[in-house]
Structures are given as structure tokens and as C-alpha cells.
Amino acid sequence: MADTIETATSLPPNPNPQPSWSLDDPVHPGFLVHGIDDTPGNKAYYIHLEAKPGKEDLVAGFLRDINEGVNKEPLTGPWFALRYSKTTFCIFETFPHAQARHDHDNGPGGHNFLRSELLKEMLAYPAQIYRLDVLHGKFGVMLGKTVAPTS
After folding, report:
1. How many whole angstroms separate alpha carbon 126 and alpha carbon 19?
2. Domains of the chain by range and CATH?
3. CA of 84: how far to CAs of 62, 88, 100, 104, 146, in Å?
4. Is there a contact between 70 and 76 (Cβ–Cβ < 8 Å)?
5. pLDDT > 70: what percent of the chain?
6. Where are the stretches annotated Disordered (predicted)?
7. More confident residue, 145 or 59
8. What is the DSSP letter of 51?
9. For residue 37, what pLDDT is reported?
């Protein structure tokens, strides 16, 4: 039997490959949260954003707004806004513990996701927010540069 190699084009676009606005949560319109919370250890979010065709610049601006907010959050980071394709964007961000992730949710970066009308205008379906546990990481180098510890 031949080994099958998965590529970016053969994988589904995210862990929820058929999201739709019909699944939108009225408690927090514009996004769905997946995964467990409040376990010990380092935390992260992976957030998948699929722009409607022609709305890519709005999503890029939305990510800049979030970046400005997380720059004010001392326990959020590293933080990355990423682009996978013309319409597919994501955020990867880390936190030292679950409380820091909660602080981010209620802070200047996380509050951008309360802009539900903008989310509905620019996204093909609700943002998919995945709570993650950070198992391992390489620290001390960021984008090829040595990073000094902050403490």
C-alpha cells in the first residue's frame, strides 16, 4: 500500500469544513467557539476567518484593529494574523494560562469580535474560534531574531 501524503490542498480548510451562518450562536453572533476551557497550562486560540469574495480588505483591516488592541494586552502573545489564501485568514495567539485568555476576550483585542454587523458583512460564515492547549514550543527566536526574555 502506497503512503498518502496530505498537502494543504487536500486537507479541509479547518476542523469544521462545512460551517454556515445557520450555525451562528445568538449569545455571541458572528463567531463560534470550540474546545474546552479552564484547564491548567499554556493556552492558545486558532481563529479561522473566511472572507466573502470582495471583502478581503475588510478582513485585513479587522485584523489590524485586533493587532492594535492586543498590543495593549500584556499577557497576550505572541500574536499572529495570517493569510492562507485570497479569502482565508486566521489568527494564532498564545496566553500563559486560561485567565489570561479570558482577560483577552474582555480586552481591547478580543472586543473586536463583538462587532457582529461587521463580521456578518465581511465573513462567509461565523468566525471559528478554537481553544487550544500549548503542548510544546520554541521560545527565544521570533521570525529569525533572538528574543530576550521579558522577566
Report:
1. 7
2. 43-133 (3.30.70.100)
3. 16, 5, 27, 24, 26
4. yes
5. 84
6. 1-24
7. 59
8. B
9. 87
Give residue 14's region: left, alpha or beta (phi > 0; psi -120 to 50). Answer: beta
Residue 150 is given by DSSP the state -
What pTM was computed for the model? 0.83
Report pLDDT digits (tens) over 48-102. 999 999 999 999 999 999 999 999 999 999 999 999 999 999 999 999 999 999 9
Collect contacts of 134-139 with beta carbons under 8 A, ≥24 apart: 134/41, 134/42, 134/43, 134/44, 134/94, 137/42, 137/94
- Determine how many CB atoms are found less than 10 A away from the CB of residue 66: 21
Who wins on pLDDT, 65 or 141?
A: 65
The span from the CA of 1 to the CA of 3, in Å, is 7
